[in-house]
Recover the amino acids of this structure.
């Protein structure tokens, strides 16, 4: 099960991406106006959407770190999923759908290419800045993956922290989008046809829609109390059953309360000949011990149940 981690890891990736995207968006917008390139316009919209998403992710991190109170006794962890979901929807609408629509318009009315070298220079700078931002996000993912003994791909599929994943996937699409736009500009310059620009705009929009749909699905799963991966459940079951007073764990459920918080509820069959006071003391000690060993478990409910009778021959 994932261990507790500092929220500053996510903030570092978000701030790096926000700084890069704000700078790149201004440069791309200028180049798009000067060149008239649909691919550059798509990249501009894409980067503006990314910058807005980083703001939403920052809000997500700050709000999810609020301590539990009377109205939210389990804390505000799901706030991160809600704001990350909004960021994914924004990526789909602003970055993806608008880019596809603009690409289709450019297919019908291909634009003329102007200020070619300005566009090339801006896209090369964007590749460098987006690449650096992606390195920061990838470094954070590798740290988290090593901590959980997973590959980065496995972590992307199962992590309960949507912020670093969103930044990493955004930056990956940023790099691919800038490459597509650069190739489209060169082809436009060599052939004199704006078709490549229009196609690149549609491809960039399609990539954004694909990533946005993936992020939307993941955040929806987390918002609806997704369970933690089964291997962590089995490790916890084995840990509980290692207690001398616990005969067996008959039921165990674990769901995410937030990126680094889990709620666990288990029915445990106690060994024979324990008094009520001994059962209470054993369960209290087990909760305390497991809580120290696995800080990510924010709530651990253990309910003693009757042992199932062994079948007689």
């Amino acid at each position: 099960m994932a261990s507790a981690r500092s929220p500053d890891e996510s903030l570092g990736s978000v701030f790096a991406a926000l700084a890069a995207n704000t700078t790149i968006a201004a440069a791309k917008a200028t180049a798009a106006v000067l060149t008239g390139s649909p691919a550059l316009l798509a990249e501009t919209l894409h980067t503006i959407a990314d910058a807005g998403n980083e703001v939403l992710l920052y809000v997500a991190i700050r709000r999810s770190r609020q301590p539990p109170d009377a109205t939210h006794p389990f804390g505000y962890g799901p706030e991160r999923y809600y704001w990350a979901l909004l960021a994914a929807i924004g990526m789909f609408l602003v970055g993806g759908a608008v880019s596809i629509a603009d690409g289709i318009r450019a297919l019908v009315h291909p634009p003329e290419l102007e200020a070619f070298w300005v566009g090339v220079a801006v896209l090369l700078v964007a590749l460098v800045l987006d690449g650096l931002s992606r390195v920061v996000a990838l470094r954070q993912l590798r740290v988290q993956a090593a901590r959980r003994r997973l590959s980065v791909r496995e972590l992307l599929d199962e992590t309960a922290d949507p912020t670093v994943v969103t930044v990493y996937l955004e930056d990956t699409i940023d790099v691919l989008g800038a490459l597509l736009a650069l190739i489209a500009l060169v082809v436009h310059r060599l052939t004199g046809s704006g078709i490549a620009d229009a196609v690149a705009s549609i491809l960039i929009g399609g990539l954004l829609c694909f990533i946005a749909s993936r992020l939307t699905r993941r955040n929806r799963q987390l918002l609806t109390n997704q369970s933690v991966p089964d291997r962590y459940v089995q490790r916890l079951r084995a840990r509980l059953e290692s207690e001398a007073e616990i005969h067996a764990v008959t039921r165990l459920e674990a769901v995410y309360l937030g990126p680094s918080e889990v709620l666990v509820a288990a029915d445990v069959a106690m060994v024979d000949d324990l008094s009520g006071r001994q059962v209470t003391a054993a369960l209290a000690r087990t909760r305390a011990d497991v809580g120290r060993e696995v800080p990510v478990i924010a709530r651990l409910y253990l309910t003693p149940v009757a042992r199932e009778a062994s079948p007689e021959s």
